[in-house]
Amino acid sequence: MLSAENLTLSYGSTVALANASATVHRGEVVAFVGPSGSGKSTMLYCMAGLLHPDGGKVSFDGVDLTKLDDPSRSDLRRRDFGFVFQFAELVPELSLRENIMLPLELNGVGRRDRRARVEELLQQLGIEEQADRRPAKVSGGQAQRAAVARAMAHRPRVLFADEPTGALDSQNGVVVLDALLKLASVDDTAVVLVTHDPQVAGRAHRTVRMHDGMAQL
Ligand SMILES: Nc1ncnc2c1ncn2[C@@H]1O[C@H](COP(=O)(O)OP(=O)(O)OP(=O)(O)O)[C@@H](O)[C@H]1O
Ligand SMILES: [Mg+2]
Fold first, then answer.
1. Which of 62, 82, 169, 179 is deepest in the core (most CB within 10 A)?
2. Ligand 1 near 144 CB (within 6 A)
3. Helix, coil or strand: residue 67
């Protein structure tokens, strides 16, 4: 469903991706692992259409993301993709509940369905009690769980997550991974995540190891 072929990307003289390829199928949870600086985040961002590679292509349902114009790529991202960034980027003025509601509003989901979905996610991720607080008024781990809930809200076709359990204790890491695995099995979402945590990688369906900007199966 989503494949990256021979991606190359350099930041000046630093080669971040050197012919990296990877494929992700629907309903599959794939974990990118590897040393710091090996290109994991760069690979994830290219596959998500957030970074433009210097060479290679990224196909989503047969469409090459690198060939789309910016508005079409943004539309596709809003509708079909969900993102969890390494540092939870919630909208600071909105409560956790409103943050999670946002992608549903942007995608025109009706009020009732929106409410039901948000309450379900708040409960699933264990942040109901903090739902009315703004991100600055909750712990880092609670904000990260809200960011995961927000990325899952509209049941994207692909969910990208850079270290989604990085700020969490092991118990809440399990909560997040359970939620992502459930999204993959119930909604057939492909989940592409980057992790340093062997426990998280161990629960993924498949692991891709990055090394010096290349992906090894
Ligand atoms: N904005 C940038 N400008 C310059 N170099 C960058 C930039 N972002 C990443 N790099 C470099 O590209 C290479 C790959 O970086 P990337 O962030 O993809 O690694 P990573 O595997 O995600 O590492 P980590 O595990 O530390 O998050 C590294 O050498 C890094 O220093
Ligand atoms: Mg990274």
1. 82
2. no
3. helix
Domain count, the chain: 1
- Domain of 9 in residue numbering reads as 2-92+156-216
CB 189 near ligand 1, within 6 Å: no
Look at ligand 1, atom 31, and give the residue with the nearest C-alpha.
Answer: 37
Q: What's the CA-to-centroid distance between 210 and ligand 1, angstroms? A: 12
User: Dihedrals φ, ψ of 158, to 5°?
Assistant: -135, 130
Ligand 1 touching residue 16 (CB < 6 A):
yes
Ligand nearest to the CA of 196: 1
Q: Is residue 121 part of a domain?
A: no
Ligand 1 touching residue 37 (CB < 6 A):
yes
Per residue in 68-101, pLDDT (tens digit) is 999 999 999 999 999 998 776 899 999 999 999 9
| Position 67 in a domain | yes
Whether the full predicted model's pTM is greater than 0.85, yes or no, is yes
